[in-house]
Write a structure and sequence with these properties.
It is built from five helices and four strands, in the order βαβαββααα. The chain is α/β, with parallel strands linked by helices. Strand 3 and strand 4 form a beta hairpin.
């Protein structure tokens, strides 16, 4: 399965990689699309802030940035995730860090599937999709 995981974050290793590959591939297939190459890159706040400023001209911290290389129905992209943000948001929302990481991962995939989160309606739609696919991670 062409889903890859790379960590630039000290002492972070994603466990159960095969489970994640299957889950994320199923998300893409259930949306009627074909999986291409998807890279998850786990980084710290500083790294993702630099990416945010350089490529998006945003000077703020974020949990995920998705670069979309999709061609037609084949979904491909790079998804950068700040482990610092994931941990902080988990504390803020009083949820397990693993659940927050799962949410951010599927959120990145949903962006590749053309879901956005700019307007209130889009935010509601993407949150519903996140919840749906989080229920299928087993």
């Amino acid at each position: 399965m062409p889903v890859y995981f790379h960590s630039e974050y000290p002492k972070f290793t994603l466990k159960s990689k095969l489970k994640y590959k299957k889950w994320l591939s199923n998300v893409i297939r259930s949306e009627g699309r074909i999986i291409g190459n998807i890279n998850f890159i786990f980084v710290d706040d500083k790294f993702l802030l630099e990416v945010n400023m350089k490529y998006l001209q945003h000077n703020d911290y974020t949990d995920v940035i998705t670069f979309d290389y999709t061609e037609g129905e084949k979904i491909s992209g790079d998804i950068f995730i700040s482990i610092d943000r994931v941990k902080e948001n988990a504390l803020k929302f009083d949820i397990a860090s693993q659940l927050e990481l799962n949410r951010v991962m599927v959120h990145g995939i949903l962006h590749l599937l053309d879901y956005n989160d700019i307007t209130a309606a889009e935010k509601l739609e993407i949150r519903k999709k996140e919840d749906l696919y989080l229920s299928l991670i087993n």
